[in-house]
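Lab channel / #folding
Pinned by the channel admin:
"Please post every new chain as: sequence first, then the structure tokens as a reply. Keep commentary short and put observations after the output so the thread stays searchable."

First post following the new format, from NK:
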Amino acid sequence: QVQLKESGGGLVQSGGALKLSCQASGNIFKIYTMGWYRQGPEKRRELVAAFHTTGTRDYSDSVKGRFFISRDNAKNSLTLQMNSLKPEDTAVYFCNAHVQVMGQGFPTDHWGQGTEVTVSS
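Reply from TO:
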């Protein structure tokens, strides 16, 4: 009922930049927190950045000052501007959203398929 589609991943050299985008679609009544997670090789999935309905943004310590999350509520979209990329940022990046579906009284968790980011040294 809800689809999250990521785009913008790719291969970039260390120090470079990439912009990830996430588009939510489907039977959406309201979207609450949206965020980006990543899972590197042989690592657990971790939160990168989150954008709450209050307008508050949270970042993991490893990306603070380098990544910037933004959101367009009218378009149900989320972006992640990633600057000064490092090889340790290499991972599959997933879009996540807490979505209240039409006719449902509570939000549920939804994930995109992921987009791969590779940073070469």
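NK: The mean pLDDT is 97.
TO: also worth noting, The longest strand covers residues 28-39.
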